[in-house]
Write a structure and sequence with these properties.
The structure is a homodimer. Chain A is built from twelve helices and seven strands. Chain A is α/β, with parallel strands linked by helices. In chain A, helix 1 packs across helix 12. The complex binds adenosine-5'-triphosphate (2 copies) and magnesium ion (MG) (2 copies).
């Protein structure tokens, strides 16, 4: 099972939109995929048409030692896609794990139990660099960093990269950045173009070729509980996420 | 000193943009104003042209008992506006305060020491409902809730309001919602109009008359370390935040 974390502590940069649409296109291309919603806001859960606070959920996954793997993932409306939904209880994990031994490896250990059930696992992270995001980085083989084409989003990258280095050095030497993904790109503004040029200058080939444009269909789809491929498969939003998945498959399955 | 918290756990909805521009227009209208950056991302700090991780900072404000008030706020480029900058250390507060008595009132107690120095105090919160945001809600007299004109932003409001009720019931009966502020409004999209109508249906007069349009000047200004009134005072972004401040002054000073 290939585990990909979608993380960036900056809020509103497109983590959930990327998680939901990446996972659903991986499923569309025949990969059995599990998405885990690690954010108490439960946006990936509702974006796929499910209620928040179902049980069992991502809190049970991290915190309960006696979980029985077979009954945790829930089917979604997308063929080949299952979800472990979020719950408000995730808010408490930071403090509840603070004195627990091996607290960084809780998620990694539990996801190991699913390794023969799925081809891919996508982890949607909350907007913070706390224990939940660190757990995701410890469990993941790859990291995708959505970068909104805005100044604040660019500014926050150095902190994220320091955390990645820290995790790689201490807990998960196999963690690699699969790529930086430009999101909400508006070709008409100088700011979008400046941010894109800056990102490519720093990270070169680590930037995905695919750029996700600002596309209102992408922000409409969650209100129907649908990923873009079921909401409007012909939209620019759908085409760009489809191209992204082809790049992701090429990068992950090339080795 | 009138304390206003700017909070919403949804990421990227315009909390920092509202904090920085509200505070600078309050200063522009002659109110001595203090802005406190409570987010480890330190966006309000850099949005006003300062470095992150200066000392003393918001972490010292919350955690150090022997702070000497006079030397904490730092002058900004805006006349009448001071800031208590953020630092990466804020990330640790959630765990460090977890077993401390009266942990909800740390910020309130400390801000009390500044009450004769400023007319207004604006608190920029991180994208979470953890102990720092709860501290801000316990310290504040008023709360402004920025709501991006998107589905996920609307969906998260019920959780925020439950937290506000909890804080009001247990810790701060004087806390009131000053208003809901629609941000990044794009009159061309059905989604923006749907969200605006929905918000007004639920909250009526609690919604500010002023709506902040999506305006690229607002997202360019932080890269120069300037609030909108110093970056482009004639832009739609500047005019809308100016109108907001007039509404805020009217609501706060009417009583
Ligand atoms: N390419 C896009 N075009 C238009 N709207 C988008 C695009 N990507 C995301 N959005 C919208 O922007 C908002 C923020 O995106 P999203 O919620 O995916 O970000 P996030 O990083 O997961 O936020 P959080 O930090 O709160 O978890 C959402 O309302 C979403 O629908
Ligand atoms: N009205 C607007 N028009 C255009 N861009 C805007 C507007 N308001 C905010 N922005 C931009 O949108 C992004 C998100 O705004 P901002 O950082 O203020 O939100 P936030 O809620 O503070 O985010 P976080 O949850 O990360 O703290 C920023 O890059 C900002 O420059
Ligand atoms: Mg999200
Ligand atoms: Mg902010």
């Amino acid at each position: 099972m290939r585990i990909i974390a979608i993380a960036n502590q900056k809020g509103g940069v497109g983590k959930t939109t990327t998680s939901v649409n990446l996972a659903s296109f991986l499923a569309f291309y025949g990969r059995k995929t599990l998405i885990v919603d690690l954010d108490a806001q439960a946006n990936a859960t509702s974006g796929l048409g499910l209620e928040a606070d179902l049980t069992p959920n991502a809190y049970n996954l991290i915190m309960d030692d006696d979980i029985y793997v077979n009954n945790i993932p829930i089917e979604t409306r997308v063929k080949n896609l299952w979800i472990i939904p979020a719950t408000i209880d995730l808010v408490g994990v930071e403090v509840e794990l603070s004195n627990v031994k091996d607290r960084h490896f809780k998620l990694r250990e539990k996801l190991g139990r699913f390794k023969n059930m799925f081809d891919y696992c996508v982890l949607d992270c909350p907007p913070s660099l706390g224990i939940i995001t660190v757990n995701a980085l410890c469990a993941a083989r790859w990291l995708i960093v959505p970068v909104q084409c805005e100044y604040y989003a660019l500014e926050g990258l150095s902190r994220l990269l320091r955390t990645v280095e820290l995790v790689r050095g201490r807990y998960n030497p196999g963690l690699e950045i699969l790529g930086f993904l430009l999101t909400m790109f508006d070709s008409r503004t100088k700011l979008s173009n400046d941010v894109a040029n800056e990102l490519r200058r720093y990270f070169g080939k680590k930037c995905f070729e695919t750029v996700i444009p600002r596309n209102v269909k992408l922000s409409e789809a969650p209100s129907f509980g649908l990923p873009i491929l079921l909401y409007d498969a012909k939209s620019q939003g759908a085409l760009s996420y489809k191209n992204l998945v082809l790049e992701v498959i090429e990068r992950c399955e090339r080795v």
